[in-house]
Amino acid sequence: MFVVSALATGLVAIPATAHAEIPVFCNESSLVTAINVANAAGGDTLALAPFCTYTLTSAHGSASDGPVGLPPITTPINMAGLGTTITRAPSAPAFRILEVEGDANVPGTDGRLNLAAVTISGGSAVTPFPGGGIANRGGALTLTSSSVTGSSAVAGGGIYTDNGTVSLTASTVTGNTATSSGGGIYKNSGTVNLLASDVSRNTPDNCAPSGSVFGCAG
Asked: Keywords assigned by UniProt (predicted)?
């Protein structure tokens, strides 16, 4: 089935199933709704508001490893920002910001999250669970020109990954904290690839277990 779009150059036939970017207004409820809509549609691209700070005041998702600020990503979703930040309000209860769920850990899911020009900050995973900023459980996580900072957990203060893939390009994971290890990134299993990215100034270390992430020192 096709719909007809009138453009300056004439009439263009477009498949009715074509997906357009979902514009996301600069507020918490709009971002939560957009992720739920994208998951229900089997995936989509979310156009985040430029230079917006989305401040999360409560958890809008839950998982077996604790509360999540936003609904868990269970389908392929792109979040395209421009100087955009997603953060937990200082007065909010503890929760990580994002969780990506894939079939290896959560059967029936196909979470693949691409973040572009987005900063994730202020996440705090509930003890004893890992992944303060982002937890990747069997899915795929890609950061491009993005940052994870100021987040905390028992392990993987910034990012925790298990049975999945994490790829960082021109991105940073800095200023995160773990009470045990992996202040920046904790790789339980799977792969982590760093390209022109900085994982540093995390406490008590940057990546764990030691030597598990090529290109990550300390």
From this structure: Plasmid
Q: Environment class of residue 166 by beta-carbon count within 10 Å: exposed (0-12), middle (13-18) or buried (19+)?
A: buried
Q: What is the largest CA-CA distance in the chain?
A: 62
Q: Give the number of residues written for the chain.
A: 218
Question: Residue 89 carries which side chain, given as an amino acid letter?
Answer: A
For residue 64, what are the contacts with CB-CB under 8 A and spacing of at least 6? none
Alpha-carbon span 30 to 60, nearest angstrom: 12
Place of tokens 């790829």: 167
3-class secondary structure for the chain?
A: CEEEEEECCEEEEEECCCCCCEEECCCHHHHHHHHHHHHHCCCEEEEECCCCEEEECCCCEEECCEEECCCCECCEEEEEEEEEEEEECCCCCCCECEEEEECCCCCCCECEEEEEEEEEECCECCCCCCCCCEEEECCEEEEECCEEECCEEEECCCEEEECEEEEEECCEEECCEEEEECCCEEECCEEEEEECCEEECCECCCEECCCCCCCCCC
Closest CA to 139 of 168, 166, 157: 166
Tell me the per-residue pLDDT of 49-85, one tens digit each, with 9 for 90 and over.
999 999 999 999 999 999 999 999 999 999 999 999 9
Q: Which of 157, 81, 143 is nearest to 113 (CA)?
A: 143
Is the entire prediction scored with pTM above 0.85?
Answer: yes
